[in-house]
Amino acid sequence: MLLVSAWYRLLVAACIIAALWTAVLWVAPTTPSTGQAQAPVRVVAQPAAVPVTPQYVLHAVVHSGDAAPNGGRFDRFYVPGQPLLAPVNARGQVAFYATVLRSAGREGIFMADAGRVRKIAGYGDTVPGGGTLAEFAQPLPALNNAGHVAFAAHIAGGRATGGVFLAGDRGLQVIALAGEDAPALPNGVLDGFDAPALNDNDELAFVASVRRGRDLVDVLYFWNGRRLQKVVAEGERLLRIGGSMDKIGTPALNSTGVIAFPATILKGPSPGGVFVAGARDLRLMVAAGDHVSGGMILRFSEHVAIDEEDGVAFGAYVGGAGTQREAVLRTTPEGTKAIAVEGETAPEGGRYVGFGPWPTMASDGVVGFVAALEGATGPLAAFATNADAVRRIATMDEALPNGERLGRFALDMVAAVGLNGNLTFATTAQREGERSAIYCHCPVTVPSTDQ
Predict the structure, then answer these.
(1) Mean pLDDT of 172-187
(2) At 397, is the secondary structure helix, strand, or coil?
(3) For residue range 328-371, what is the model confidence (pLDDT) as tens digits?
């Protein structure tokens, strides 16, 4: 009970997003954008189904202590105080952040692929236009099904102090740099960047801090493959909704160019909610105060996820009459449903007593999340949806078929889902001799015997 209680308190603390909902920064309203974000340059088809029978195997794709590309050995897969996310795509490729010991390239973004690990970008790498990559302050890489990776990083020795980058077939591409003029914001200068979202068209969405005089303003931008477009900015009046846009959370982006993001509303009919924009008109999809199973939505996670049908998954607190419970929710044009709610029975025993920082969702609508449990075989577990049902993927301290035992799930860990049922999560070493690791629940395919 003590272990469960301790992990519960840690997870609850990690999930609280008071900064998003209580911090209010008043800025003079700007002129609302009258144009919709430009349509995607191209829309790729989803990977074709392969006529094989998948056999899912839970295995570590990288351990601390493993040899790193270009020398040294992997140490940590997270930055203290930051969530840990290792996205996986339909191919089973896993992108991750890591620090490296005994190497000049002391940290970077890497890719685990078919039993091998390669570097995507690392400390000291040359930045097009000048300078070198320095600290990865928000180590949350975004990965698409082509194996391309987007990320934000600081720059040393260049004309800019930071930027948003895309690593793909053409090498490292600069999407935006601190110090550049802010598109569609007169007298605005790009100052800093949150972690980007990436789709299969190599398009990006991200929130940038824009400096205008003495003010810093949140601005949501969309990169359509050719240029950067403003979607919405803090302080803009929400003409169809009421009030004005306030703080903007981390966006999600699908391959039709639809952007979903959480945000607070200043002096509006609701304190905030989840919006969609980009290739859709700006719309409040679900608001604080809306009712779902379990009560009224009180507040939202800082990150959301979106599928190809514009369904959005997010973490929330629900309740009423002085009570509140954590929940994982999914909303569509047909309404909002609860996937898992604190206090409910979890698959394979126990009950939910808390959830990880936010859920993730694959383009086919499968949702993944981490939950703290009471009365189960382990205090923490990773889950994924299958149609309308939830299934348990892995439980802390369980034994794997190869004899390995899962270690302590990482604090602030996010379970990342991809197409084909792939899911990743991470464990952290707690005692001498233990190793941290990133695991993937990925299929090993064999030819189908069906005729």
Answers:
(1) 97
(2) coil
(3) 999 998 899 999 999 999 999 999 999 999 999 999 999 999 99
Specify whether the CB–CB gap between 298 and 286 falls below 8 A. Answer: no
Contact criterion met (CB below 8 Å) for 394 and 401:
no
Q: Which of 68, 137, 141 lies closest to 106, judged by CA?
A: 68
Which residues share a beta bridge with 303? 250
Given this model, what pLDDT does residue 10 score? 38
pTM of the model: 0.87
Return all residues near 154 (Cβ < 8 A) that are at least 6 apart: 133, 134, 135, 136, 137, 161, 162
Nearest to 309 by CA among 255, 390, 384, 385: 255
Long-range contacts of 114-123 (CB under 8 A, 24+ apart): 117/61, 117/62, 117/66, 117/68, 117/69, 118/69, 119/68, 119/69, 119/70, 120/95, 120/149, 120/151, 120/167, 121/149, 121/151, 121/153, 121/165, 121/167, 121/172, 122/70
Burial of 227 (0-12, 13-18, 19+ CB in 10 A): exposed
pLDDT in tens, 46-55: 555 444 556 7
Question: Could you list the residue range(s) of the whole structural domain that residue 327 is in?
Answer: 2-447
Structure tokens at 66: 């493993």
Model confidence over 209-234: pLDDT tens digits?
999 999 999 999 999 999 999 999 99
Locus of tokens 């979607």: 231
Number of independent structural domains in the chain: 1
Instruction: Please provide the DSSP assignment of 291-332 as one string.
Output: EETTEEEEEEEEEEEE-TTS-EEEEEEEEETTEEEEEEEEEE
**In which band, very low, low, confident or very high, does the pLDDT at 13 lie, cut at 50, 70 and 90?**
very low
For residue 226, is it left (φ>0), alpha (ψ between -120 and 50) or beta?
alpha
The backbone torsions φ and ψ at residue 33, rounded to the nearest 5 degrees and listed phi first, read -70, 130
Closest CA to 70 of 36, 95, 106, 41: 106
Q: Which two tokens stand for residue 150?
A: 């987007």
Place of tokens 């369980």: 398
Q: What are phi and psi of 173, to 5 degrees?
A: -115, 135
142: helix, strand or coil: strand
Contact between residue 194 and residue 206 where contact means Cβ atoms under 8 Å apart: yes
Q: CB atoms < 10 A from the CB of 294, how many? A: 21
Q: What angle (nearest 5°) sits at the alpha carbon of residue 290, between those of residues 284 and 294?
A: 140
Beta partners for residue 324, in sequence order? 319
> Please, which residues have CB within 8 angstroms of residue 269's CB and are 6 or more apart in sequence?
241, 242, 243, 287
Largest alpha-carbon pair distance within the chain? 69
Query: What pLDDT does residue 432 have?
Result: 82
Segment 179-201 shows an average pLDDT of 97
Q: CATH no. for residue 20? A: 2.130.10.150
379: which strand partners?
A: none
Check: CB of residue 320 under 8 Å from CB of residue 329: no
